[in-house]
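Hi all, long-time lurker, first post. I run a small reading group and we've been trying to get comfortable going from sequence to structure in the token notation. Rather than ask abstract questions, I figured I'd post a concrete chain and ask someone more experienced to write out its structure so we can walk through it together at our next meeting. Sequence below, copied exactly:
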Amino acid sequence: MFPILLKFSEPRFLEAFRNEGLLFMNPLEYFRSLEGDPARGDAYEGVSHVMQPMHIGEFVIDSGLPGVGKLTADPKELCAPVRISLTEMLACNVFCMFAITAPIDGDIILPVHRDELGSAFVLVLNTPELLRRVDAACIGAGVSKLEFGLVEYYDGLAYSGEVGPFRKRAIYRHQSEFRIVVRPGLNLPRYLRVGSLRDITSEILPSLKVNESLDFSTKSAIEVGWTAA
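-- Answer (accepted) --
Happy to help. Here is the structure in token form:
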């Protein structure tokens, strides 16, 4: 099953999304640079692997430079996880949406987080068709690799391993992201035009009324035969 998707943004951007199918895709490097934006900024964006100090047996950097040699550190003295970022990862372009994967009894978006997302939203009425059109647009634009899927959220104090564009720390779990990722990236914004999406998206609605406008409760899900993604 595909998730139900919402796109939050400002009305002018949502108009372009509906009328032209414009997907404005920033590189991951952009989100890492937004230090003053707690909603979108994330210093871990573009990280390919993360390693917690307690999972490191020995930390050695061999510079291979005369007079420098090897640099060593006691893992117990590391003040934060070791992050490895690759240029290719930082450059990949992403388009983010809010995903609903199971019935929600209560607020879809908690009021404390609502202002982070943008003043308006549209509901995608046919997720598989949206992704089919994105795939066709990527082929037409000569994009070599398209990926999409839900973001998996991990414990930022305990997890060591691969990260990439589809894993984020659990402090961002409320964003419930679904991402469309294009590689290799431009390391600049990419403007991917899919074509009109008016037939598979709702009208533009105010974010302030998202919890009043939509009903994804268990009762409604049972009535329409909807199962979790």
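A couple of things your group might point at:
Helices lie at 11-20, 28-32, 87-91, 111-117, 127-140, 210-213, 218-224.
The two ends are 5 Å apart (CA to CA).
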